[in-house]
Design goal:
This protein has 996 residues and is α/β, with parallel strands linked by helices. The protein contains 36 helices and 21 strands. Helix content is 41%, strand content 14%.
Length: 996
Amino acid sequence: MIPLAVHSHYSLMWGVPGVRELCARAKALGYTALALTDTNNLYGLWPFLDACAEFDLRPLVGAEIIDPNTGSKVVALVKDSTGYANLCRLITQRHRDPDFNLAQAVSSFGQGLVLLTPSTQCLSYWHALFCQGMDLDIAAFIGRTPVSRNRPLCRAALAAKLPLVAAPDSYFLSPEDHDIHSLLRAIDTKTSLSQLSFEQMASADAFLGSPDYYAHKFAALPEALTSTHILADRIEFSGPDFGIVMPPYTPPLGQTCQGVLRKKTMAGAIKRYGPNLSGRVLKRIDHELTIIEQTRFSAYFLVVADIVKQASRTCGRGSGAASIVAYCLGITNVCPIKHNLYFERFLNRERRDPPDIDVDFAWDERDAILSHVLHRFKGQSAMVASHILFQPRMAVRETARVFGVPEAEIKRKISRLCRDTPFLRGIHALNAEHSGKTPRLADPWPRIVSLAGRLIETPRHLSVHPGGIVITPDPIDTYVPVEDAPKGIPVIQWEKESAEAAGLVKIDLLGNRSLGVIRDCISSIRETQGEFTDFQEIDPEDDPATQQQVAQGRTMGCFYIESPAMRLLQKKSGQGDFRHLVIHSSIIRPAANEFINAYLKRLHSGVWAPLHPLMEGLLSESFGIMVFQEDVSQAAVRLAGFTHARAEELRKVMSKKDRHKKLEVFRAEFFDGARRKGVSLDAVERIWHMILSFSGYSFCKPHSASYARVSFQAAYLKTHYPAQFMAAVISNQGGFYSTFAYVSEARRMGIAILGPDVRHSRVCWTGVKKEMRVGLMAVKTLGRTTMDQIVQEREKKMFLDCFDFFNRISPREDEARALTDSGCLDGLLPGTNRGGLTWAYYVWQTGQRSMADRRDLFGSDKHKIPNLPPDPPLKRLRREFAVLGFLPACHPLALIRERFEDLKVIKAVDLPGRIGRKVCFAGWLITGKLVRTRQGDPMKFLTFEDDTGLVETVLFPRIYTRFSYILDHGYPYLLSGRVENEWGAITLTVSQVSRL
């Protein structure tokens, strides 16, 4: 017996076991071959092939395909490469053709497949086609329950001399897993467990049994078991082997891709370096082009270069930024010669897996770029998939629902439950604000928690990768099945790891808000102050004023270097040049805190020694600290004798989700290799410990350099054009901080904040010189259509008064209220309080619009707006804050100053003069980051501000646990604590917190 109808958890919301778990179980049961036939997909193909290799199983590739209209099904097993392509196209049609008919589709794409069907009609129809000369390999599918030879299916198969094949479909590994299967089905059908019908789930015997179990079960039909072996022997296919699949590029007639690439590269080099190219530049170009031609990547570069041309500005990043060819083509913007970037990190003759080029576009241009690519390569391109897995919060919520728990109770329970239940902590933490012992739970919550824990990491549904796209020379659905995302975008069924394993070269086209910020800022500069040469002729990293701002950590709003941790690192280092920023943007990763401290100590003292004599000269620019991904690879080569290819495998494993098991293999190899080179165990332990700090995510040097380039462009604009820059930051939204925090930063820079005004405000924020005008987009509840209409009507003719405005704009009541409370209408009724504006709106709303046409309105006693009591100033500002989320006129702390002015509160700007002393500080909480100590205790880094500056604070576990319940962003607090100074960076270690 060979299992031929086996489902993993990639049979979404039906199958229970993971692919590796499934293969391990099959091996333990004594099987030598195994089919994976997930429903309507090949999601798990590459994990399945890997697991079969690990457990020495012969893989049989296939899928179960179900007709959504008739319910007919077939289990299709791949015999050869033709069958594989046909299976991909069959699955694609199943997902994308609304009129899909299984019987007819198989007649078109059945060649190269073994077709097992339980449908008598399909069996007879396909056999008739076979008799007419069509190459179809058909068998009768006998499921979990053996049937009599007198049943129609058996009679039809025997009459046609077709084999009966035992194919008991399995959805879980043991009978005990049936409860998880039932849970998945209840979640999928949106019903409660108690109301789940037998037709909606598999029976309790749908588990993977042993050969003896099936021998007993099929004792009355032993030939069906024998047929599984006969059938498997006819299958030669063990997985696709495409090699590296390049995107297509058609060169002009009579030319080659290699020739076109060389020509375009040289033209681009002249633009980048001038007409007199140095020997160093020419040598580097020739070196790279030789490797690109040998590895057949010329078309890839040309395709990416064509895509990049569609955008206003880009940031080519990743290891591809080490290429001078990419730089000359305009794909990247960092000179690899100037910044000593190593091309072979991206592409080398030994590399077997396909590298990819990552390109960032302005966030609001990215979708248009993707549409262009998908249209240009229609039928040959699709987005890469992302498999959305059950995460703890989702698992608990969905499980509670099928238990019939009311939504209100789920909402109340889930926050505390997710904090306190052990399996939800660590890498699966939902809300790690608190830790504690598992609480005692009332029924049915213990059962809910138990079942939810078993759902973690189970695939829930298919989504789209943020930017990965694959382009193939032949129809893409001959390589991989394709389905449509909800928005109609074609998406392959594999995640990026599987696409890479298949050899499909991915291009990452991602959105970056900071590119939009830089674009809009430059546009504003040109509009308000004249010509700006952009950064083609300016190197912002060489500007002394910009370097000083970066060195002092004054980088709020600047791409990648605005977070509290990054700003503190800049202050501690005191370095604002490009080289150090490249190091800092890479070293500031989650697992590297201890090495950041070592780096700073060595930076300031200049005293350090190599990790080992074998690594002499390897890490000199970072003072002996591994910073970039390349450092891991080079250390493995130097210290442990790894080949470059094997070292690259180690580097890649570090970023994998399932790295822990594979890392053990590499660790043993690393230690053995180092021991053979005479490296002491202590030295190897220290070096390996540093290597482990790259777990999760880390950057290569070209990537960091590309990011640093964008960071410096942003910092340059902030330094020299602060009002335009801050307006662009707020308008593009999505920065690290809230609009409130950016407004405060602008005010601290001496920029006057002009309130929103329907006579002057655009939709977006605008800045010029030392003034910044609030955009209409800041007004809550104001619709985009209304914003655009205000600007368009104003351009035709300025609003005469509030009645003219109401007549021409016709705002909704909530919009009119927001416009009034925010001050947008103040200029339309000078000398009148906002209550009068509200009165005027209601007059207009009740039908007296003709009043707006009377020019004697305010001179007429009949229509004169009543003399209402003035707005209480505090109430007026509170309403303004509620609508805008900030105050244009002042910092909101000014409104509550009487609450703390007698407490000897210290301003942020004065903290450097109080080092080592205990102080009181009144500040507004703007952001924070929760971390855990080595003992697992929670602590938090919080950023507060007042009207003079930012204050970075630390709440250690005891203090954090005591005050965490009152901490919330967007509120003022009174803090007590000790002022600390570390390498020139001032922080406050908090001992007491109270809300103002």
